[in-house]
TrEMBL record:
Pfam families: GST_C. This is Glutathione S-transferase. Residues 7-136 form the GST C-terminal domain. PANTHER family: GLUTATHIONE S-TRANSFERASE GSTA (PTHR44051:SF8), GLUTATHIONE S-TRANSFERASE-RELATED (PTHR44051). It comes from Guillardia theta (strain CCMP2712) (Cryptophyte). Belongs to the GST superfamily. Transmembrane segments: none annotated. Residues 1-29 form the GST N-terminal domain. It comes from the Eukaryota.
Length: 136
């Protein structure tokens, strides 16, 4: 369970932590930007958690969910405003577990998702945290 203590603020749950950090450090400086990030954080927790952390990813709704995400990512670098944000932290953190938990899953059907995963995994903070071979 992720947790954060920042001065007098104590939080748990990754989505709450991401929204707090975004609010505190100015990424979500308008209600519209906050809502756009929040929808992806909630979506990741509601949709990706249940379909990716299962024994049989093909039987779960994963292909349908990934097909939808693939269409959304068509022509986009990132999810919100086409720049890396807490929305990408939320979504990519789930997606980047696919190779680890489902090494035989053929994700080639979702080229935009694969490219997005590569973009997120190539960020210096990801490399520092997870290592350079995390997607292999």
């Amino acid at each position: 369970i992720p947790g954060l203590r920042d001065d007098k603020v104590e939080l748990f749950e990754s989505g709450a932590i991401l929204l707090y950090l975004s609010d505190k450090y100015g990424e979500s400086n308008t209600p519209e930007k906050r809502a756009d990030a929040a929808k992806w954080i909630v979506w990741a927790n509601a949709e990706l958690d249940g379909v990716l952390f299962t024994r049989d990813i093909e039987v779960a709704r994963a292909p349908k969910v990934l097909m939808q995400l693939d269409a959304i990512l068509n022509g986009k670098e990132f999810l919100v405003g086409n720049q890396f944000s807490v929305a990408d932290v939320a979504v990519a953190s789930y997606l980047l577990f696919i190779p680890l938990f489902h090494p035989n899953f053929d994700a080639s059907r979702f080229p935009n998702v694969l490219q997005y995963m590569d973009r997120c995994a190539s960020r210096p903070a990801f490399q520092k945290t997870m290592g350079t071979n995390a997607l292999q």
